[in-house]
Amino acid sequence: MISLLEFRHELHKHPELSGREKMTARRIREILEGTMPDLLVSGVGGHGVVAVFDSGNPGPVVLFRADMDALPIGEKADFPHASVNPGVSHKCGHDGHTAILAGFAEYVSECRPKRGKLILVFQPAEETGRGAKAMLEHRAMKSLKPNYSFALHNLPGYPEDSVVVRTGTFAAASKGMVIRLKGKTSHASEPEKGKSPASVMAGLMVDLPRLSGNGNTGDYDDYVLLTLIHGNLGTPAFGTSPGDAVLMVTLRAYLDADMEKLSAGATALVKSRSEAAGLTYDIDFQEEFPASVNHPEAVELITRTCEKLDLSLVEAVLPFRWSEDFAHFTAISRAALFGLGAGENHPALHNPDYDFPDRLLERGVQIWKSLYHQLLDG
Ligand SMILES: [Zn+2]
Ligand SMILES: [Zn+2]
Fold first, then answer.
1. What is the pTM of this model?
2. Which domains are assigned to the chain?
């Protein structure tokens, strides 16, 4: 048996960035081999690992997912399990999520499903929004059609041991938009001989965020947000009037349909402003996350779990503005993404001071056990 605490600390000490979770996946596989699943597949959508426990009897197909990638954030900590990889650390608690699911896998090896099928998914590249999609496109996952899918994420800002859930959108859709404007450089003494994208860029910096607020909300069915992220104009040379500009913005929406409208609106604005100024432009969308939409039946199962374990249930009034690529699982099954409170004063996710609270490890395993028994225990 693994020690949840030791395994969590081991993962924390050796974090790997999205898409590079090679050693993490190897360790997960080693542990899963000891649990004697009916099927164990590695290299699913990158470094994803999938274990299937099949009762051989009819019943639901149930999927539990843990994410396993770390972030490009340096860790300045003096605890013994501090990251040894410079500039990389587990600041979203995926080390904790993985340890919890691995601990639960060991429980399942002793207490196998009596009906249906259990799929345990260890997913890479959550932070870049690539992992879930890549896993679902892999042939190993295509044959496994889950009826129910669940994922937990620790949530600082909520009381420890509370469970945070919501029917409908839990986490927003988001995507990055890279806008490249192209004009023509000229000598700075003769700007009229070139075509500077400066004024179009400045106009877009003012007007793109306005697409998501101040009277325009009537165009959408729910909340949308457009945030300026980065801008670059020309080069830092006093002798040259710029010919190129780059602008990066992030788009968010609670509904996928609104995301389409916001993307179309932003694209149309870039097109009309560029064309009017005689510039060419190029748009690239990256890190696309659909909205994570929770199914009422899956939320009901979480609610019952909270009753059984005597945990306080917090129903989120609004969806969270951040995104989660578990959204791809919510699109193919009755699914719920839910939060496990990490403490009201715990440092926020992606904050350099954050570390997964070890007190949640056992609690997480208990939640998986309860959902498991409700769905697959016969
Ligand atoms: Zn994160
Ligand atoms: Zn995360």
1. 0.92
2. 4-170+291-376 (3.40.630.10), 173-289 (3.30.70.360)
